[in-house]
Design goal:
Layout: E1 4-9, H1 14-29, E2 37-43, H2 49-63, H3 71-78, E3 81-85, H4 91-108, E4 114-118, H5 125-135, E5 144-148, H6 156-167, E6 175-177, H7 185-195, H8 198-201, E7 209-217, H9 226-229, H10 233-252, H11 264-273, H12 283-286, E8 287-293, E9 295-297, E10 300-302, E11 320-325, E12 337-342, E13 349-356, E14 375-381, E15 384-394, E16 400-410, H13 418-428, H14 437-455, E17 461-465, H15 473-479
Parallel strand pairs: 1-2, 1-4, 2-3, 4-5, 5-6, 7-12, 8-17
Antiparallel strand pairs: 7-13, 8-11, 9-10, 11-12, 13-14, 14-15, 15-16
This protein binds NADPH dihydro-nicotinamide-adenine-dinucleotide phosphate and the ligand O=C1O[C@H](COP(=O)(O)O)[C@@H](O)[C@H](O)[C@H]1O.
Length: 506
């Protein structure tokens, strides 16, 4: 791996402290960092280098999956860190920053390879990129890369404007757009799961798959982020990026028999191009939006979204979105993809359920005894787990047909954090698990009409109790095709229907 300088904008912020420093430290311990690297932390807070190093150390003690125990390794790691106080709007400051970067490059004898990571509010992305260019920080004799955090735009127009601005300073190949779901080990494993297992690869299409269900449910509410979340909602916060990425990954992976194209990024773009658009007029038939009301999470009372600090008592923000999507290509024609995400739901679970088509009627003497459809459940969070549900006769129960699960699991605490995998890739120059601009643009294009339908209040906003599986209306999306949500890996169906009211815009 090339020796490089890592320049972190927002190094005094939450993401740096909770995720980025621990990720770099774990890579360092695993010798997955360049042998020589220079780290420059930026923020407005007035830190000396020593204060900054001790701040980083505290973050490792609190958040790293491996707590620092080897004193000399920790010292070597922290020794690479320097701090420079910079307001992102201060043009002259960038020129001073360049001097510091060059001084460190000379001290360490490393080439001018520079990684810029923007862990700051999105309104600063364009000004930082342009100041990097103007100051000469971006004129390197080596490579330069820009890692950019979400959100990438607020809608199609702003995303295009942001991309146009960034493109003035960085080439597309130099821009690494983070979607932390793409860093999750199980998501990175999806392609291998299908391509390295012909038994699954052979089934991975509309010939054998009846429907796909993608869920990202959370038990947390809006927490302290009302300022951001009120104008984002679940549709921008989770659906436009993470959920569509999971859909793309699921539909893009294919066995070598089915597709000669082995470039997952290109295949994902192909999936988005084939996504059937939803018109504003028709949105209510394919999309359900909801907002959590009061309820209980794991038996603890929880207030409704409208009672949360910083939230308007008449807020129409969506905290839940479910959708039915169709991919009009030869592999996925007629297979509905059901997607849902919500806050304050019954459990924290991110998973993909593949429901296979029903087989022939059971011919071995059990008459009309119904069998459950075979399912492959790929659990991404909280634990990683793959469960294949099969049917078998139970000799201990009069030969009754019963579902059984084959399961493989990996406890979450043994796995690297997604940021570790993504930073490692970015340092190596591998953009496979970063979002290409075309993916982002096509995802916004699809979502844009939905945003407008929300804005124009064309869809009911259903309240759902905190601690539930979301509004019952989301069940109807599947019932139209004769399916139901598989609520968890043991396959429980949705509960009985409640009568539903809707929130009215005031
Ligand atoms: N936190 C998280 O879990 C996640 C965050 N993100 C994204 O990551 C980015 C950072 O988030 P987060 O760390 O939570 O944000 P914070 O608000 O915690 O931190 C913001 C950082 O920006 C710096 N900053 C603010 N204004 C200026 C300025 N004018 N000049 C220079 N630096 C400035 C702050 O430094 P100082 O106060 O010292 O000036 C601080 O380091 C955002 O884009 C967010 O959407 C994405 C996914 C998850
Ligand atoms: O990006 C975001 O993701 C988190 C959920 O991430 P996970 O890894 O815990 O599944 C979500 O809580 C947050 O609102 C959103 O901004």
């Amino acid at each position: 791996m090339d020796a490089a300088t890592f320049i972190l904008f927002g190094s005094t912020g939450d993401l740096a402290k909770r995720k980025l420093f621990p990720a770099l430290y774990n890579l360092f311990l695993e010798q997955k960092m360049p042998q020589h690297f220079s780290f420059i932390g930026l923020g407005r807070k007035p830190f000396t280098d020593a204060e900054f190093q001790s701040y980083v150390e505290q973050s490792l003690n609190t958040f790293s999956r491996r707590k620092p125990s080897d004193h000399s390794a920790l010292k070597a790691f922290l020794g690479c860190f320097r701090y420079y106080a910079l307001d992102v709007n201060d043009k002259a400051g960038y020129v001073e920053l360049l001097k510091l970067v060059q001084k460190r490059e000379q001290e360490l004898g490393i080439p001018e390879n520079r990684m810029f990571y923007l862990s700051v509010a999105p309104e600063f992305f364009d000004v930082i990129a342009s100041n990097i260019k103007e100051s000469g920080l971006g004129d390197t004799a080596g490579w330069k890369r820009l890692i950019i955090e979400k959100p990438f735009g607020h809608d199609l127009k702003s995303a295009r404007a942001l991309n146009a601005e960034l493109s003035k300073s960085f080439e597309e190949e130099e821009i690494y757009r983070i979607d932390h779901y793409l860093g999750k080990p199980m998501v990175q494993n999806l392609e291998t799961l299908v391509s390295a297992n012909p038994v699954l690869g052979a089934l991975w299409s509309n010939r054998h798959i009846a429907n796909v269900q993608i869920t990202a449910s959370e038990t947390v509410g809006v927490e302290e982020r009302a300022g951001y979340y009120n104008s984002a909602g679940a549709i921008r916060d989770m659906f436009q990026n993470h959920l569509l990425q999971l859909l793309m990954m699921t539909a893009a992976i294919s066995s070598p028999m089915q597709s000669a194209e082995r470039n997952i990024r290109k295949q994902k773009i192909g999936v988005l191009r084939a996504l059937r658009p939803i018109s504003k007029e028709d949105a209510a038939h394919h999309i359900i939006r909801g907002q959590y009301g009061a309820g209980a999470i794991q038996e603890k009372p929880a207030v409704g979204y409208r009672e949360e600090p910083g939230v308007d008592a008449a807020s129409m923000t969506d905290t839940f979105v479910a959708a039915r999507l169709w991919i009009d290509n030869s592999l996925w024609q007629d297979v509905p993809f059901y997607i849902r995400t919500g806050k304050r739901m019954k459990d924290k679970s991110t998973r993909i359920v593949i429901e296979f088509k029903a087989g022939i009627k059971e011919p071995y003497g059990s008459g009309e005894q119904p069998t459950e459809p075979n399912r492959l459940t790929i659990q991404i969070n909280p634990d990683e787990k793959i469960t294949l549900q099969l049917n078998q006769k139970n000799a201990l129960n009069n030969g009754q047909l019963e579902p059984v699960n084959m399961e493989f699991s990996m406890p979450a605490n043994q796995l690297p954090d997604g940021y570790e995998l993504l930073l490692f890739d970015a340092l190596r120059g591998d953009a496979t698990f970063f979002a290409h601009w075309e993916e982002v643009e096509l995802a916004w294009e699809w979502v844009q009409l939905v945003l407008e339908a929300f804005q124009e209040n064309r869809l009911p906003l259903y309240p759902y109790p905190s601690g539930s599986y979301g509004p019952d209306a989301a069940d109807a999306l599947l019932e139209e095709q004769g399916f139901h949500w598989w609520q968890n890996e043991s396959g429980h169906k949705a509960g009985s229907r409640r009568s539903e009211k809707v929130y009215q815009q005031v």
